[in-house]
Amino acid sequence: MKQTTDVELDLAGVGAGPFNLSVAALLSEMPTVRARFFESREAFVWHPGLLLDTANMQTMFLKDLVSAVRPENPYSFLSYLVKNKKFYRFLSAELSCISRQEFSDYLAWTAHQLPNIQFNSEIEHIEFTGDHFAIQTQQGQYRAKNLCLGVGKVPLIPDCAKPYISQRVFHASEIGLKDQDFTGKRVMIIGGGQSGADIFLNALQNQWGQPKSLDWVSRRANYQPLDEAAFTNEYFTPDYVEAFYHLDAQVKRHEIAQQKLTSDGITQQSLLEIYRALYHRFDVLKEEKWIRLLPHRTLTQLRQGTGSDAGYQLTVTNALSQQQETHAADVVILATGFVAPTPACLSDILPLLDLDENNRYTMDSNFELQWEGQATNKIFAVNAGLHSHGIAEPQLSLMAWRSAKIINALVSRDAFDLSTHQGMIEWLTHQPAMEPVSSPL
Ligand SMILES: Cc1cc2nc3c(=O)[nH]c(=O)nc-3n(C[C@H](O)[C@H](O)[C@H](O)COP(=O)(O)OP(=O)(O)OC[C@H]3O[C@@H](n4cnc5c(N)ncnc54)[C@H](O)[C@@H]3O)c2cc1C
Description:
By secondary structure, this protein is an alpha/beta fold.
């Protein structure tokens, strides 16, 4: 039976994915702040359906939960290496980029030590009483003065595929959750980002059996690399985010569109691995070609074929030929990305929030939502401000910095020193106020 607890919190976290975990890890050194992060899963696991054998991180391991603002915190990646007795072997392995499995293990190691994470506790409902938030979880009810929303994203399924979602048409995030057998099947992957690449490589290496054919469709003009150049990385710095926050909304949209490949491209390492695997199979071993790379194509229609083993008919538009093409598949994997959810537990609070014309939160530079009760109670959100704070928002790169900003705003003091030294790039030059240009009239 659900109980009403008399636990009163200064901060309740909704969800304990990596982003709220970072806030929780930094708060663990501030015992006067009564915080608890509620997580629906029974144990920590990081995007379990996509923890594939060959999948690597896109970000460096030093961009962990805490190091960028508090390297001496016990939950740094370095601390994880030392405490797990693998520091020297990690160095000898010379990993410039670690596996997602290892980062997930680090996150789980942290989550299960932190006293302020409560698993098996889906938040079902949150109500604002005028003074505090009444939080209904599967484990009972709690009172909290402030909230930090960290619910992550949900799979984006193209409309044309929605009626066919099944064991044979599914989102990429499901691939590792069920037993798969692609033996003798025509497999088609839709989506040319990192998840599509990871699944293509695993399928090519017969991770799920030897398919009859393997097609990889991408809307992009080619299988495009993640832009990881030195100056590009400046987009993932506090200096840039602070400058970005104050830009005009239209300029922000343009910047985000321009920067797509700085976060959504495929790592050079994955591309080379795929290219080499293809070369080995089809140019060295001289296998008859059973794969097809199909860039520049957008999925527009999906239909079930007729007959018991007819599979699916996919219509795509080829941006080069400007023609429609049809392809057949038995298994369709939608590596089509993720979108922001509207969490059901917030249904009571949503009417109190200031949302923009696209129903997105409006947030100040400290990731604090603008809303009716803001004068007395704060609501923060992580991974919800791509439009306001820029492309680093959905990435791990600045999570520790963002968490520190949130905590500083929560406690109304600089618990973390976030002042920066001179930046590499001068994004905006502050000029003295200009004289208005005089009119010729
Ligand atoms: C496969 C994959 C690989 C990625 N790799 C990288 C990378 O290498 N580098 C990088 O910078 N970024 C990467 N990202 C992007 C980003 O870093 C991750 O998506 C990250 O997990 C986002 O963290 P989060 O905490 O916002 O969300 P999530 O990890 O989705 O966590 C949200 C949590 O909230 C819980 N929850 C939701 N609703 C409730 C509720 N009502 N009550 C209780 N709990 C709830 C969920 O169970 C979940 O555990 C990757 C994304 C994916 C999908």
